[in-house]
Design brief:
The protein is mainly alpha-helical. It is built from two helices and two strands; from the N terminus they run H-E-E-H. It has a two-stranded antiparallel ribbon with strand order 1-2.
Length: 72
């Protein structure tokens, strides 16, 4: 049982590390509110561009902004 828990923890760590790497390499993803085939000019989530920042990148930018504003 302990081996399964350790293996699950390692898999979770690996998935998290891969997602963070993907957010650093490509912080912009396709907008899920627009239609998959094209851009929607009236989409408020992406302002009609069809691209929006990934959740991990949004969290990174938020915490970076908090740190910057807190150390001024």
């Amino acid at each position: 049982m302990a081996t399964a828990i350790v293996l699950l923890g390692l898999c979770l760590f690996a998935v998290t590390l891969c997602y963070l790497g993907r957010c650093l390499i490509s912080p912009w993803g396709t907008c899920t509110r627009c239609r998959p085939g094209g851009k929607n000019r009236t989409c408020r989530a992406c302002n009609g561009t069809g691209m929006r920042p990934r959740l991990g990148w949004q969290l990174f930018a938020h915490f970076r902004r908090l740190h910057r504003n807190g150390t001024r």
